[in-house]
Amino acid sequence: MTRTTCLRILETRANPADAGAFVIPWQSVDGKSYTLQAATNLAIGFDATRATGIEATPPLNTHTDNVNGAGATFYRILLED
After folding, report:
1. What are the φ and ψ backbone dihedral angles of 11, each rounded to 5 degrees?
2. What is the pLDDT of residues 59-69, one digit of tens each?
3. Where on the phi/psi map is residue 68: left (φ > 0), alpha (ψ -120 to 50), or beta?
4. Which long-range contacts (CB under 8 A, 24 or more apart) does 13-21 make?
5. Cβ-defined contacts of 37-43 (< 8 Å, 24+)
């Protein structure tokens, strides 16, 4: 990534094929891999790793997360070393 890029999740959306799932998109860079984490309570922090080793598929990566009525869920994406 260059100094003009930033790693952030774009607008999440419901998965039309599965009412209990959300699609989490983010911009990606070739040759990188990512970890997706989730939390249902930000006071506790990101306590659930949803996926690791997600290979980049530039320009956009997506991951579908099944929440099945978990209520509010917060996500963060991490760049792996």
Report:
1. -65, 120
2. 999 999 987 76
3. left
4. 15/64, 18/64, 18/66, 20/66, 20/67, 20/68, 20/69, 21/64, 21/65, 21/66, 21/67
5. 37/75, 37/76, 37/77, 37/78, 38/65, 38/73, 38/74, 38/75, 39/73, 39/74, 39/75, 40/70, 40/71, 40/72, 40/73, 40/74, 42/74
* Contact call for residues 22 and 13 (beta carbons, < 8 A): yes
- Against a cut of 0.90, is the pTM above it? no
Can you tell me which residue has the tokens 């009525």? 69
